[in-house]
C-alpha cells in the first residue's frame, strides 16, 4: 500500500495540549491524532484560509469519557479555548518533526459526531501591521499546494463491501498500541511496561509516523474492518479514502457499538455542517 498518493500528502500528524494561562506552568499533553486538509472554494484558499478535518475527541476528550473527572482535569479547565493544537511537518520518512510545527485553531466541533473542523492559525501582526510568516508556515502552505489544496468530500457514502484506504499517523511503538486516554491504563500494565510508557509520555512530540491500512466497509453508517495492515492509536481523524482525491469519512477508532470493528463518521452525515462552519470560520 503506497503512501505517496495525494490522499496521504493531505494528512498530517497533530497533537492537542491543554494550557490555562496563569494556572499552568506548561501545557499538558492531551492526545495525538491525524488531521486532513479539506479542499474548499477557491476564494477561501486565496485568502490563505486552510481548513482541516479531524476527530473531535482528540481536542475534547472529556466529552467521550463516562466520568470526565477521572481525567484529573478540573471541570473549569475543560474548555476548548484552553486547547492548543500543533500540526507537525513530517520528514522524508513520514515521521513527525518535533521542532517543525504550525499552530491550528479549533473552528467548530460537531454537536453529535466525532468530527472537528480546524484552521491554520495565522501569526499575529507585527508592530508595522504586517504578518510575518514563519518558515514552517510557508512549508505547510507549500505542502498544501502540492496536495492540490486537500481532499474533497465524497458525494455518496462508501458502499458495503467497498475497499477504502485509511491514511494517517500512528504513535510510535507502544504509543500506537496503547490507549493513553484510558484512565485505567497504567493500572493494567506491568511495572516494566508502566515505566516504559511514562518515560515516553514525558516527550511525546515527534513520536508519530505515517501508516496506512486497507479497510472494507461493513455498514454505510460508518463501520469497517481492516483487510491489510491495521489501525493504531493516533490515527483518529484520518480520512477513509474512497480514492486518492476523495474522503468518504473520518476515522474515530473502535466502533461505538461493535468494538471489534473500526468506526468512522461518513462524510455525507457532516457535509452540510462543515460547509456552514467553513463559511463562519
Automatic annotation (TrEMBL):
Top-rank taxon: Eukaryota
Record-linked InterPro entries: Peptidase_S1_PA (IPR009003)
Protein name, entry field: Peptidase S1 domain-containing protein
Species per Swiss-Prot/TrEMBL record: Trypanosoma cruzi
Organism classification: Eukaryota, Discoba, Euglenozoa, Kinetoplastea, Metakinetoplastina
